[in-house]
């Protein structure tokens, strides 16, 4: 069963270019992973510094493997230094 994820990130406005650079590498490398069906970065149109990752994984197992990838671990380490707050992650399965 496919796993849908929405991850919400809020960055300090002084670090927006840094955040985008971190995201670009993360998205590029994640899209290469087996089981990654969608991995898109969206910037909130009304709230500068607020980003969403829209993810679709073939299975929970594929996403679990993603969690151990170096590019994700590096992103988490570097992004945590410039984020306003912790990321909010929502995971679920399509109902209809």
UniProtKB/TrEMBL annotation:
ABM domain: residues covered: 3-93
GO function terms (MF aspect): monooxygenase activity
Keywords, ordered alphabetically: Monooxygenase, Oxidoreductase
Family annotation (SUPFAM superfamilies): Dimeric alpha+beta barrel (SSF54909)
Keyword Cytoplasm: no
Keyword Calcium carried by entry: no
InterPro entries noted in UniProt: ABM_dom (IPR007138), AI-2_Isomerase_LsrG (IPR050744), Dimeric_a/b-barrel (IPR011008)
Protein name stated in the entry: Quinol monooxygenase YgiN
């Amino acid at each position: 069963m496919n796993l849908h994820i929405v991850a919400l990130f809020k960055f300090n406005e002084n670090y927006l270019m840094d955040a985008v650079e971190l995201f670009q590498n993360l998205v590029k490398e994640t899209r290469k992973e087996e089981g990654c069906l969608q991995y898109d970065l969206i910037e909130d149109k009304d709230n500068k510094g607020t980003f969403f990752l829209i993810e679709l994984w073939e299975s929970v197992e594929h996403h679990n493997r993603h969690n151990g990838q170096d590019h994700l671990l590096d992103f988490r380490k570097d992004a945590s230094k410039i984020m306003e707050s912790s990321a909010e992650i929502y995971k679920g399965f399509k109902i209809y």
